Amino acid sequence: MKNKVFINDVIYDATEAKISVFDRGYLFSDGIYELIPYFKSKAFLFNEHFHRLKNSLNMIGMDNPYEDKIWINKIDNFLENCSYDNFFLYIQITRGVPNDLNEEILREHSATKTYNPTVFMFYSPIKNIMGCSLNSVNAITLEDKRWMQCDIKSISLSFNSYAKTLADKLDAYEAILIRDGNITEGCSSNIFIIKDNVIKTAPKSNLILPGVTRAFIIEKVIKNNDFKIHEESFDVGELLKADEVFLTNSSQGILSIKKIDKHIIKTKSENNITQKLFNSYKEFLE
User: Fold this and answer.
1) Cβ pair 128, 186 in contact under 8 A
2) Looking at the domain 131-285, which fold is it?
3) Which end of the chain has a smaller Cβ tally under 10 Å, C or N?
4) Catalytic residues
5) Nearest-5° angle of CA 207, CA 212, CA 214?
6) 4-126: which CATH architecture?
7) Residue 158 burial class via C-beta count within 10 angstroms: exposed 0-12, middle 13-18, buried 19 and up
């Protein structure tokens, strides 16, 4: 079996990996995750992703199962099994399984027992961004009905999954979410608009995930190329009137959005800022 899975210090073939049905991650989505991209077998922004993982654990009151050096060692040892050049590493940590399963009560909302946390990792191939041109995708808009703590990278993704599936059925890559009239983010991405050469994206708050690629694009790509960036709220009207719209995430980098619902984004080819940002972003991967 080509793909391997790490579960609590044991490496399995993907078809053989198993987790207890009494794991609180399975019963309550009581856990967090992180996804780290690797290009040419080198992690991109590893420290930033690792910091967010630890921050998410802290925000839901979970102890970190390993010290930093042990984490690095376990990740490196696990990835010795990976034969892909371009892939993502998925890390998931749940509160786990009660130490004592002999009690009659096997499911309760409050985490009152002593638990063995579950550390789970796998890898999966992604495209080589360095060898790709800028892709354009469609998007739909939906009311943002998620909980109010979207800055935690929680494994509780029911609405994200529903919205992303609906987008796919409508021949779109992403669902752009709207809360109180303003754009928050996509189901698996951060959203940017460009109008009159000024770039906007929603400010960091509890309503959006602090995207690692989002931050890198802002600080290392947009600002270093002297483009104007405003981290401020914008509404649906601004979204649809934008000259350009793009999204960022860890596995895709930057994707241009050409159509939102039935509205076409009429980007002028001679002043395609998204293309310039994508070209600059790729230089960091080389």
Assistant:
1) no
2) D-amino Acid Aminotransferase; Chain A, domain 2 (3.20.10)
3) C
4) 153
5) 70
6) 2-Layer Sandwich (3.30)
7) exposed
